[in-house]
């Protein structure tokens, strides 16, 4: 739910408590999802790209065998060239924080959070990132995923069917539960 759509009394409460507007962007992301974003950053650094693209995010979902996106959707079967850590990499290059997210990647992360909320999931995992990639229209990764037959509806349905197999990542923020009702 966008900040502007919150009732004014709730916005004042959030500002007083400092809990809504000071949240870390990745606070709700599980460790595997955070690693996927780290890997996307690493891929952009390795390729000396000016920004992290949606294709970097897609390739990062394939980096680890344990990614829920990989487990549920067998992405490596369709994208074998993106499997795992590039062989030439020994360590991340030293330097600044790295390239920023491209506008498409920012849109992917926005859709990711939106879809997790829609599914009633506090914790954002790699399957939510995949759903965010599919939902982002006109990005390269979305077109790749469309070519293999993944749609937002099919990904969402698979996530819902497999909710029971998701690891327990800990308690859900009370504030988030409250926000769902507004």
List its salient traits.
disordered N terminus; 52% helix; 182 residues; Double Clp-N motif; 10 helices; mainly alpha
Secondary-structure map:
Layout: H1 8-17, H2 31-46, H3 54-61, H4 68-73, H5 75-78, H6 103-118, H7 126-135, H8 140-147, H9 152-161, H10 174-179
Helix pairs in contact: 2-3, 3-7, 6-7, 7-9
What does this structure look like?
- The radius of gyration is 17 Å and the shape is globular.
- With 182 residues, it is mainly alpha-helical.
- It has helices at residues 8-17, 31-46, 54-61, 68-73, 75-78, 103-118, 126-135, 140-147, 152-161, 174-179.
- It has one domain: Clp, N-terminal domain (Double Clp-N motif).
- The chain has ten helices and no strands.
- Residues 1-7 and 9-22 have low confidence and may be disordered.
- Helix 3 packs antiparallel against helix 7, helix 6 (103-118) packs across helix 7 (126-135) and helix 7 runs antiparallel to helix 9.
- 52% of the residues lie in helices and 0% in strands.
- The longest helix has 16 residues, at 31-46.
